[in-house]
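Ops channel
N.P.: pipeline sanity check, posting one input/output pair.
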């Protein structure tokens, strides 16, 4: 065993012990603990948990790599993922918290007084969360595969075992406090390397201010090599694809069931709003750092790896070639590695950069621990979403309303184990890169839940027939476009599979409105409940004045 392996393994095992200890200490003993953490999480800690839940393997592992490979076009991911939180925080989260349910399908089922709508929403939750979890398990495979220098598929299987145990044990209560610890670990692990790289390359410890100079230098290198300039817009796709992807991620963020449920874990509407504000701050720390990470990584690869003799390449290249995520070929037979002969997966850029930049054993181990924290935290939230949709919305609310508390918890835990294993099997041979798979989940959320929730909260005339037909239309159109674009090569205005949500959301909104207006309106009581959602949770009298909570 080499020193790097021992250091990385030690750091990861210490963090795992911390997560398991927190989960055991906060074991869910009743269903309210398992699904909504007893609704007692303070906003600042809920913001951290949201940040960890949100900054998945796609953000930690894949985002900087995606920007490195796509340049300007990769910024759609940052603008979409952060913009969506503003939409969620101001338009949906407080209102959904006020309704006081456990899950998104439960809100839809009760808002429209329909078991059919509830079951369709639960199925949509399972599809979205399952798709998203494939990306997380694939990400954990990349980390574990590199750590043990084994195939990423074996690493994925190890990740399945860890996540199944970790998620099923503590429920939402255990996961929330574990995610607070995971956020602290992952953000430190992400920011330290980019600060070191900034110091190493520019002499400035503030990468957010210094990477612009490096981008300018890369422009000259790009022209010298005769390749598309890094900061030139729309070189990897059309303007319409950029806009469609950004919309898909914004709307998908506002409709992701495992993120929305985090706002149910606080006590009031006001706390829900503050949770969103804190989450945006914590998420922004990583997303503002990702472009700098991408620029520094690309600059180091272009200046210190490309152009070297194949026989003199650094040792880290052999390690990553073994994982299957890096390919090196001497296409022209000159013994020199050209930029065009280096094929690096965007999923390994963050993981490999500490080695590429020679940042030391501790930083390499810290990044590995941070990447595992990102994958585990999001996977835990996704598994709770799948579990609650099946065990609470389908099993308890529809199939067996007289089930005991003990029986409901048992079904919830077993559904997590089954879902994790099935997602892991698909992740052994993932259908795309991590960020691409995650974008599909966002497209599905933007085509189903975003229209259903937006209209459900802000339009009292929407009825049962409208929401059911809208969700089915959005789901069908989104899935059809993803498959046609990816496997059939059929696109509209150059919009590829990752921008499918724009078509799904349009279909869902139009269908919901047209069908609702063509059928009987909801009851007066239901319409009054919708109007009531838009106002503060309660009004109290204090010192002779009216105070709003």
């Amino acid at each position: 065993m080499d020193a790097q392996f021992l250091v990385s393994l030690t750091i990861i095992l210490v963090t795992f012990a911390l997560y398991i200890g927190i989960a055991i200490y906060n074991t869910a003993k009743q269903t309210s603990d398992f699904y909504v953490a007893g609704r007692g999480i303070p906003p600042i800690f809920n913001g951290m948990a949201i940040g960890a839940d949100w900054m998945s393997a796609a953000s930690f592992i894949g985002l900087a790599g995606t920007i490195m490979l796509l340049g300007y076009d990769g910024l759609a991911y940052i603008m979409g993922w952060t913009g969506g939180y503003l939409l969620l925080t101001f338009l949906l989260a407080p209102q959904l918290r006020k309704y006081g349910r456990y899950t998104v399908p439960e809100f839809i089922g009760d808002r429209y007084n329909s078991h059919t709508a509830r079951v369709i929403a639960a199925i949509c939750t399972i599809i979205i969360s399952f798709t998203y979890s494939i990306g997380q398990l694939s990400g954990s495979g990349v980390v574990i595969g590199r750590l043990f220098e084994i195939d990423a598929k074996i690493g994925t299987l190890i990740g399945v075992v860890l996540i199944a145990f970790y998620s099923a044990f503590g429920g939402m209560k255990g996961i929330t406090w574990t995610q607070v610890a995971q956020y602290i670990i992952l953000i430190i692990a992400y920011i330290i390397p980019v600060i070191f790289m900034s110091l190493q390359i520019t002499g400035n410890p503030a990468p957010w201010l210094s990477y612009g100079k490096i981008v300018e230098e890369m422009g000259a290198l790009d022209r010298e090599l005769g390749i598309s300039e890094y900061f030139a817009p729309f070189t990897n796709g059309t303007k319409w694809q950029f806009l469609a992807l950004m919309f898909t991620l914004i709307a998908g963020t506002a409709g992701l069931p495992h993120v929305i449920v985090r706002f149910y874990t606080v006590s009031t509407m006001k706390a829900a709003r503050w949770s969103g504000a804190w989450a945006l701050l914590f998420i922004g720390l990583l997303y503002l750092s990702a472009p700098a990470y991408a620029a520094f990584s690309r600059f180091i690869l272009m200046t210190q790896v490309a152009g070297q003799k194949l026989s003199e390449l650094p040792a880290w290249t052999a390690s990553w070639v073994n994982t299957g995520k890096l390919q090196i070929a001497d296409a022209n037979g000159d013994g020199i590695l050209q930029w065009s002969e280096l094929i690096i997966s965007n999923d390994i850029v963050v993981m490999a950069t500490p080695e590429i930049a020679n940042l030391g054993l501790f930083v390499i181990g810290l990044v590995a621990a941070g990447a595992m924290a990102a994958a585990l935290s999001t996977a835990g939230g996704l598994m709770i979403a799948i579990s609650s949709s099946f065990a609470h919305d389908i099993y308890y609310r529809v199939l067996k309303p007289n089930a005991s508390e003990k029986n409901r918890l048992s079904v919830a835990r077993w559904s997590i184990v089954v879902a994790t294993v099935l997602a892991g099997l698909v992740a052994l041979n993932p259908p795309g890169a991590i960020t691409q798979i995650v974008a599909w989940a966002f497209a599905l959320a933007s085509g189903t839940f975003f229209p259903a929730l937006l209209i459900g909260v802000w339009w009292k005339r929407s009825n049962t027939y409208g929401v059911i037909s809208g969700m089915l239309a959005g789901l069908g159109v989104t899935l059809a476009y993803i498959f046609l674009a990816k496997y059939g090569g059929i696109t509209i205005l150059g919009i590829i599979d990752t921008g499918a949500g724009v078509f799904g959301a349009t279909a869902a909104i139009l269908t919901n409105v047209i069908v609702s207006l063509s059928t009987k309106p909801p009851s007066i009581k239901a319409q009054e409940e919708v109007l009531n959602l838009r106002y503060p949770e309660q009004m109290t009298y204090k010192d002779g004045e009216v105070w709003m909570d």
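N.P.: looks fine end to end. The chain is about 75% helix and 5% strand.
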